[in-house]
Specification:
This protein is α+β, with helices and mostly antiparallel strands. The protein folds into 3 domains: 4-163 and 410-461, Porin chaperone SurA, peptide-binding domain (Triger factor/SurA peptide-binding fold, Orthogonal Bundle); 183-194 and 302-405, Chitinase A, domain 3 (Roll), CATH 3.10.50.40; 197-295, Chitinase A, domain 3. It is 49% helix and 15% strand. Strands 9-4-11-10 form a 4-stranded antiparallel sheet. A 4-stranded antiparallel sheet has the order 5-8-7-6, with helices on both faces. A hairpin with a 6-residue loop joins strand 10 and strand 11 (390-401). The chain is globular, with a radius of gyration of 26 Å.
Length: 463
């Protein structure tokens, strides 16, 4: 019912889909809506429109211009599957609260605004205001969350053993094994430049002045955030962070923010990002709607120089064998994420330590080009993707693979991931065989010949 590529190549997201639907294809959307039609009906009232399918296809076509129209069948299959999961979630009384929907929308919006550079640029790109987008995406987001939660329950018990991974690999014909791109295993030791007392004092004094204007002179918090805040993800939204739950923010920020009363503004709070003032907008149970203004602490040239000198000393210890890389990470590194993995950088999606070159920042790629396995780079300044701040590091190249035919020795984690996905697909097919006859599903005649949908149609005809 599902094949491997149907799920591994198609990563449908209701929110990102609607972002595309609203953005550069607005004209296309208007043209489609003028002649729109329902192409699938699922359950008690869920539908899929021709325009939704076309927009989903346009999204993939933009990334792969050679994409064939037959891909529409695969996209429609996954769209229907998402609706079936949501329908089953309703049957099983799976709950997604409005607060959860709000939190998800706010989180994703902050990401998209940060990617666009500002709220204004984001709204220009989609041709709508944030508030219009929220209204239009709320139901889709909720349905997507229901489907994800149902799918999580369905696949919760699916695990895979090393024996099963080997069996999966051995079944692949030798002439069908894919060639895999070059990968590297890399780590880093990060040392943040020390902060001079003068620049620290300047940042705090600046924020004290802003807080005074708001508290004593009646300045508007949102306006002051838009003018002054150094947080690109919230600045153009007037410092708005949306609904925040416990554990989402760094401890110092959370402690100060959650103790506020509605409308209250915090004293100045220092975190790893700089100095903040926080405003409580609203509270619902354990969630808080917060705004903030961030003033970063600038570093001087001498601050960076001090960090680079320290890293050069660490590098000498590593090269001479006085200390291992893992111990040096624990002793010196300020990078919390890689510190948890012994300094090694991992793929956030898969957890694998083997990374493709395109997944690395440009400065790291340039440094790796002249490095040997087991070597350490010269100290360098780079931009920390987590904080947006410039910092200093040395890079460790543990291993490098050239483009090669897939094998269990070099590519076990990747093969394990694919084998697990296939096992999950098998579980989904078992579920579909059992549940599909219990659903109402009507597919437009123009799509009933889709190879991906033929087994579903056959199962329905046997009711």
């Amino acid at each position: 019912m599902f094949n491997n590529s149907a799920l591994t190549r198609f990563l449908f997201s209701g929110f990102s889909f609607l972002i595309v639907l609203c953005s550069s294809e607005n004209l296309l959307a208007q043209e489609l809506q003028s002649a729109d039609r329902i192409i699938a009906k699922i359950g008690k009232g869920r539908i899929i429109l021709q325009s939704e399918l076309e927009q989903g296809f346009a999204q993939y076509k933009a990334e792969n211009p050679d994409l064939k129209d037959s891909m529409k069948c695969m996209i429609l299959q996954e769209m229907i599957f998402q609706k079936l999961l949501a329908e089953q979630a309703d049957r099983d009384s799976v709950i997604v609260t409005e607060d959860e929907v709000d939190a998800t929308m706010e989180q994703r919006l902050r990401y998209y605004i940060a990617q666009a550079g500002s709220q204004e640029r984001f709204e220009q790109a989609i041709g709508k205001t944030i508030y219009q987008l929220k209204d239009e995406t709320r139901d889709v987001i909720k349905e997507s969350m229901l489907a994800d939660r149902m799918k999580g329950q369905l696949l919760a018990g699916v695990k895979i053993t090393p024996v099963e991974v080997k069996k999966y690999f051995d079944k692949i014909p030798a002439d069908s094994l894919p060639y895999l791109p070059a990968t590297v295993e890399v780590g880093q030791i990060v040392i943040d430049p020390p902060v001079s007392p003068e620049l620290d004092h300047h940042a705090r004094t600046t924020l004290e002045g802003i807080r005074k204007q708001i508290k004593e002179e009646g300045a508007n918090f949102e306006t002051m955030a838009t003018i002054n805040s150094a947080d690109p993800g919230s600045r153009d939204a007037g410092g708005d962070l949306g609904w925040v739950e416990h554990g989402q923010m760094v401890p110092e920020f959370e402690k100060a923010g959650f103790r506020l009363q509605v409308g209250e503004i915090s004293p100045i709070v220092k975190t790893e990002f700089g100095y903040h003032i926080i405003q409580m907008v609203a509270r619902q149970g354990d969630k808080c709607h917060l705004r903030h203004i961030l003033i970063r602490i600038e570093r001087s040239t001498s601050d960076y120089k001090a960090a680079l000198i320290k890293l050069d000393s660490v590098r000498s210890e590593l090269i001479s064998g006085k200390i291992t890389f893992q111990l040096a990470v624990g002793k010196y590194s300020n990078d919390k994420a890689s510190k948890l993995t012994g300094g090694m950088i991992s793929d956030q999606r898969t957890g694998s330590s083997k990374l493709q070159i395109q997944d690395l920042d440009a400065a790291m790629v340039l440094a790796l080009d002249s490095m040997q396995e087991g070597g350490f780079s010269q100290p360098q300044i780079f931009t920390n993707a987590q904080t947006g701040e410039k910092s200093c590091r040395i890079i460790y190249l543990k291993s490098r693979t050239k483009p090669h035919k897939a094998n269990l020795v070099d590519d076990y984690s990747s093969i394990q991931e694919v084998a697990l996905k296939q096992k999950q697909i098998d579980q989904q097919n078992v579920w579909l065989q059992e549940k599909l006859p219990t659903f109402y599903l009507k597919i437009d005649k123009d799509y009933q010949s889709c190879p991906e949908l033929l087994p579903w149609i056959a199962a329905l005809s046997n009711k």
